Amino acid sequence: MTIWAATACGAKGKGMLPLPTRRAALDHLRRFVPRAGASYASGRNTDPGPGKPSAVSRLSPVVRYRLVTEQDVVAEVLGRHSFSAAGKFIQEVCWRTYWKGWVELRPAVWQRFLAERDAAKREADVMAAEAGRTGIDCFDAWARELVETGYLHNHARMWFASIWIFTLRLPWTLGADFFLRHLIDADPASNTLSWRWVAGLQTAGKTYLARADNIARYTEGRFAPRGLAEEAAALTEPPVGPAGKLEALATPDMAAPSLLLVHHEDLNAESLFAADAPVRGVLAACDPALLWGDAARRFAGEAMADAATRAETHFGCGSTLADRLDAETLLSAARAVGARQVLTPCAPVGPVADALAGLEPVLAAEGIALRPVRRRWDAGLWPHARRGFFAFDAEIEGHLRAEGML
Ligand SMILES: Cc1cc2nc3c(=O)[nH]c(=O)nc-3n(C[C@H](O)[C@H](O)[C@H](O)COP(=O)(O)OP(=O)(O)OC[C@H]3O[C@@H](n4cnc5c(N)ncnc54)[C@H](O)[C@@H]3O)c2cc1C
């Protein structure tokens, strides 16, 4: 079995982003929490530029891989602020939950994106845009910032996507692909649906137009772009179809000798499985082929090593780090501990879920059950992502009350 070789986090903007351990993520979160109320609400739209103090949390890399969960973030914030004082920040955290749920109920949207992206790659040339050689000052700076740091402020992501689609008239799927290949927090749901939203596909007919005065104002005068599109006609597509149901998961046998599989979609196994779960060994598999870019691979690889160490302590057993999530790796790890069951955090729509779907019958043929377990946060909130965000938003407070968080 190949052992993952951890490397130093390569993002040049790492000074402002949390390092890839849970300890560092929690420290970063706790330093941010005092600012999660009014200062976040009033300052969150301003992008002062790379390396500059900003009103936003820059927590997305650690939330993406669940070094800290949305529940951890909201609980920490509610320890300091009331629900209404931190309402804007909690709402933004829940945008992530909403996008994840939305795709979970309509997985075909992700498949459609992949197919359209691959078709567009054969037709369009986006080299100048990706290299930051368009002559549009802000756009070129953000293209370079993205590649160099693996992060962009939310407002910059919106402006960038809008200019890509409506000024440069490039296929949105290739812009989304550019983000996937460079963002440390690259995420199938948040990225795809945010690009769709800018393009007018997500909320049919409603687009986002980047305006020069808005950019100048919220970048504190750093940019004065010229020649931006003055209108943004929504793109169109065949109907996506109605929301389906969240897939029902079989209940794990909590007496069966088990291997715990940790994958990069959820690096916090100890908050999902009790210490007395029948875990005989841990396989911590971070397969670079299931991510898109090197910055994300480095970050997730280091975070995986941290997750394996925490799981060893929590379950009191050994762990193996692997850089493959394939049948041979999984079966040999399961056999080594006599497992009849593989417990794993439920992976949302994306490459890890696809890999697990392919591995399930291979394990079953050996008499080993694959048992993904969904977090209560996801099980409680994802089913409400059936329509627009505002219907979803109305469910958040009730969920937090039901979970004893309010
Ligand atoms: C075109 C485009 C592409 C995007 N691609 C991604 C992506 O691949 N991965 C990703 O995690 N986010 C993506 N986002 C959402 C958002 O830009 C980032 O999550 C946010 O900028 C992260 O910075 P932060 O942690 O400082 O956010 P904060 O403002 O401090 O928010 C706290 C947390 O809430 C969540 N969050 C905040 N805003 C959003 C949002 N609009 N949508 C979803 N979650 C949100 C993130 O987990 C974030 O860490 C995208 C947005 C756009 C417009």
What would you say this structure looks like, in words?
- This protein is of the alpha/beta class.
- It has three domains: 13-103 and 381-402, Serine Threonine Protein Phosphatase 5, Tetratricopeptide repeat (Alpha Horseshoe); 111-218, DNA Cyclobutane Dipyrimidine Photolyase, subunit A, domain 3; 258-374, Rossmann fold.
- The chain contains 17 helices and five strands.
- Strand 4, helix 15 (351-365) and strand 5 form a beta-alpha-beta unit.
- It is globular, with a radius of gyration of 21 Å.
- The termini are far apart.
- Residues 1-15 have low confidence and may be disordered.
- The structure holds flavin-adenine dinucleotide.
- Flavin-adenine dinucleotide (FAD) is lined by residues 44, 56-60, 63-64, 92-93, 95-96, 99, 153-154, 157-158, 161, 179, 183, 185-187, 190-191, 194-195, 198.
Spans where pLDDT lies below 50 across 5 or more residues: 1-15
CATH topology of the largest domain: Rossmann fold
Helix content, binned percent: 40-55%
What is the residue-averaged pLDDT? 95
Number of strands: 5
The count of domains is: 3
Strand residues, percent? 5-15%
Shape annotation: globular
- Regarding quaternary structure, what we see is single chain
Question: What's the CATH architecture of the largest domain?
Answer: 3-Layer(aba) Sandwich
**Strand arrangement in the largest pleated sheet:** 3-2-1-4-5
* Estimated radius of gyration: 21 Å
Number of helices: 17
Sheet with the most strands? Answer: 5 strands, parallel
Q: Could you name the CATH homologous superfamily of the largest domain?
A: HUPs
- CATH domain class name of the largest domain: Alpha Beta
For the termini, the CA-CA separation is: 46 Å
Structural class designation: alpha/beta
